[in-house]
Specification:
single chain, 320 residues, mainly beta, Pectate Lyase C-like, 2 domains, 23-stranded mixed sheet, two-stranded parallel sheet, 59% strand
């Protein structure tokens, strides 16, 4: 009983000190309450003269989709701590052919629990946009049904999802979040993640490049030349057949390529540190193969398409 009373007295003393040294409201006391309030903010902008879209957020999730009509519709929906609701502002600013969208959020330090659960939705008219750029701190980024010249996303700890995107250039960067792309088309696609996974499905590109660290990379049913590397993450490719050149590097991660059809004309060049390599086919013609299995070279058919794989301690496997 005395021990519990001591903890209560210490807690009361800490709160009293914070109150005493908080004459200008540096700390927010509303965080001690779980009461929330719905917010709904909305703005529009004429899209006729716009070519570029820039969106920047902190903790809010961001969703950019194809809308209806000839205006850009921007809205912020969700719920936040009640006393913080009035401090959220939606920023929509058009300068020349560029529209900048953002959120003004409270920046005071809160004691206790501050609830922020909001989503920023940007609806764009259907047209070829010159550029779409999205940057987020801890929020997720979701792009759907857009087309144009260049799209670039950068997420901190949030996930990135791109669907039905047709841009000449597509770049997606993530910190600890995952990157998922599906049904995307472009001349050049670049996907980079630090600790998150990278997954691409139903893609079509002249060149697809990726870079991962501890996360895994999975490419499924796509078309295009492939080039990428991971540090400790695995690389896995599933395709009907490799029809374009591919170049993969990994440190301790494995590289596995699964094909539905046996290659008609594919040259394979694998070299690993301590990792082993294997090709599951009786029709592969070996030019070089050592006893340690960390060096394989040969081809299917005439070997017009090139597959190059380099690993450290990771293994390599080609299967049909």
């Amino acid at each position: 009983m005395r021990r519990n009373m001591g903890f209560l007295l210490i807690g009361a003393g800490v709160l009293a000190l914070l109150y005493y040294f908080n004459p200008v409201g540096v700390f927010s006391w509303n965080g001690l309450s779980f009461k929330t309030q719905d917010i709904h903010l909305e703005k529009t902008a004429e899209a006729a003269s716009l070519q570029n879209i820039t969106v920047e957020t902190g903790s809010a999730d961001t969703r950019i989709v194809k809308g209806e009509g000839d205006q850009v519709n921007v809205r912020l929906d969700g719920n936040v701590s009640k006393k913080q609701a009035e401090k959220f502002q939606l920023k929509v600013d058009a300068q020349g052919d560029t529209l900048s969208v953002g959120i003004e959020e409270p920046n005071e330090i809160g004691v206790g629990v501050t609830i922020i659960d909001v989503e920023l939705v940007v609806e764009l008219p259907e047209k070829n946009w010159k550029s779409v750029r999205v940057r987020s701190g801890s929020g997720n980024i979701d792009l759907d049904s857009l087309k144009g010249d260049s799209v670039e996303t950068k997420a901190g700890s949030g996930d990135t999802s791109l669907r039905e995107i047709k841009f000449a250039k597509l770049v997606a960067n993530a910190g600890s979040g995952n990157i998922n792309v599906s049904d995307v088309q472009g001349d050049a696609i670049t996907l980079k993640a630090d600790s998150g996974d990278i997954r691409a499905e139903q893609y079509a590109a002249n060149d697809l490049k990726f870079e991962g660290h501890s996360g895994n990379v999975e490419l499924k049913q796509g078309k295009g030349s492939l080039q990428g590397e991971t540090h400790s993450g695995d690389i896995r490719v599933e395709a009907g057949e490799l029809l374009r050149d591919a170049d993969f590097k990994s440190g301790s991660g494995n590289v596995k390529i699964e094909l539905i059809e046996e290659p008609k004309s594919l040259a394979v060049d694998f070299e690993g540190g301590s990792g082993n390599g294997s090709i599951d086919s009786e029709n592969f013609s070996y030019e070089e193969k050592n006893e340690k299995k960390n060096r394989l070279k040969g081809k299917f058919g005439s070997g017009e398409v090139k597959l190059k794989v380099r690993t450290g301690s990771g293994d390599f496997q080609l299967t049909k």
